[in-house]
Amino acid sequence: MVDKKITTRIDSLREEINSHNYSYYVLDNPDVPDSEYDRLLNELSNIEQQYPELITPDSPTQRVGATPLDSFSEVQHEVLMLSLGNAFSEQDMSDFDRRVREAVEKENIEYAAEPKLDGLAISLLYEKGLLVRAATRGDGRTGEDVTLNIRTIDAIPLKLRGKDYPKLIEVRGEVVMPKSGFDKLNRQQLEKGEKPFVNPRNAAAGSLRQLDPGVTATRPLSFYSYGIGLIEGMTLPNKHSEMMEKLKSWGMRINPESQVVKGQKGCNAYYEKLAEKRNDLPDEIDGIVYKVDDIKFQNILGFVSRAPRWAIARKFPAQEEMTTLLDIDIQVGRTGALTPVARLEPVFVGGVTVSNATLHNQDEIDRLDVRAGDTVIVRRAGDVIPQIVSVVKSKRKGKPRRFYLPNTCPVCGSETARFEDEAVTFCTGGLYCEAQRKEAIKHFASRRAMNVDGLGDKLVEQLVDEGLIHTIADLYNLDLEQLIKLERSGEKSAKNLLASLEKSKKTTLSRFVFSLGIHSIGETTAQTLANHFLSLENIMNADEEKLLAVPDVGPIVAENLMTFFKQTHNIEVVEQLISVGIHWPKIVKKSQDELPLAGKIFVVTGTLESMGRNEAKAALQNLGAKVSGSVSKKTDYVVVGENPGSKATKAEGLGISILDEKEFIKMLSQ
Ligand code: IVH
Prior knowledge:
The protein has 670 residues and is α+β, with helices and mostly antiparallel strands.
């Protein structure tokens, strides 16, 4: 005999776990943290292991059965599982409402409005409150027995709550995969090198079709009930909405968006509200289902073929459609990134006609394995830009070639490059590439580059649009007459601009190198390069070995520099700039101890606004300082940024000079 205490504990654990499940899924209001829930489940499972004779099929530990099936057996639906008629417009809705009003001879009909969930229909049979069978819809008459798989879904109670449930009830509803779970599952699929699912509905269906319930148990499935089939031992309530409340009290999950609305007006308002919310809802929905709420009216209306005349599904515009991908074009962005764009046979999707979709980068093209001429599924959800979801491989004709981003820029012909671990392929044309021209010129003229006063972004755009400048070198060939002719440009500002262009010709080597806008060459790297190589010629001619020998120059910087100076047009632009008179003082190599901060030891702590930690370090080293990671008596200066750590306090204690960011920058510029 088992101790009475044990059976009581088991009962109370089961009751408590079921009640937490109810709060979580049905009330949407979790009352304990996951850890507490897991603790209870663990305790129950441990006791059950000691007393296996006390395990019951409805115990919350018994969701995942042991043995996989060979096949699913058939289930006959005693009450047919029906489908719904569709409405695609307000006109269709008003026709439906009129038919209802005429049949029941009443105005202002009350409708139970519910989201039309995009999952799959399931029938759950509860006998004396216990889940005894779960079946798919199949053809409406014959479905498949998926009881073992359905039992693994936590949102579906194995046992109904309370006492007033009928002795037999068939609950019907939709098994769904929430969007968040779908995204996570697809990430895992990709990591495992397996194919991602096309959409949450397919993922939910695929998960329920597993012969091994152990697999289904790992899938993030959920469930909402929306109706009943068989029922014995109870008189039905008068309204659908009341029946839903009953189901809820027995522990069945009802969609929280469900609402009773009045007349066609109410239906339309509900439709608009949900259409607006659609993308923010946790589950994929493809429309609204309206059901005449009064059961008496439902009985008057009856059925036509396989759909009730008392319900209708108003569909949202489809968010996914199939079309042909005509070709893949390449766009070069203002930063030089090459973006492949799919040109599509125009298709109406998500409420608009779509003829282009971004393919992002080479990785995305490889992932989809998309090729010219393919049939593709296009998705446009809400305001999100259209995406290619997948390729319908079965429709591929012949053997189209794989697509690769080109080795040369389609706009300027410069080489393209892509770094390991980075998704973007970019044009190395920089200054020269028409697509990047405006950005390149803005950068060149900016305060920390050539510091051309009076050359704002708007003016640069105007100059380029009017065809007055093609390269940065052209800036120095502008004349007063051309500038005055430009809109909004007075004589005075034109003269000022010419003067500041003239003034900018006197610069430093590091500013000049920085102003060329070479990928990954920031101010500090430019400074390091100038100090190390002393002349522009040396920088331009440095090979990989020489570049990598420079402190702080890694393979990416080295490759960017070499690619840039390999392009003839870049060399031409540099030569033009020199020939218009850009010059800088010769750098005389100072020995390490002649540098201004020679021998000084610095520590940098906290976040600096104007530069990264590494940049600050390199700038200090350029001036001969040593940078240390910890404060000691030997430290000369501690540079303190935002949110400094204990180092700042320690420095104060030791009486070491502390520099804030302003003072630090001042010191660097001296
Ligand atoms: S009621 C007699 N309500 O839509 C009414 N169905 O096109 C039968 N569905 O097979 C269904 N959300 O899988 C109903 N709130 C909802 C629904 C819903 C999704 C699905 C269900 C059904 C299909 C009918």
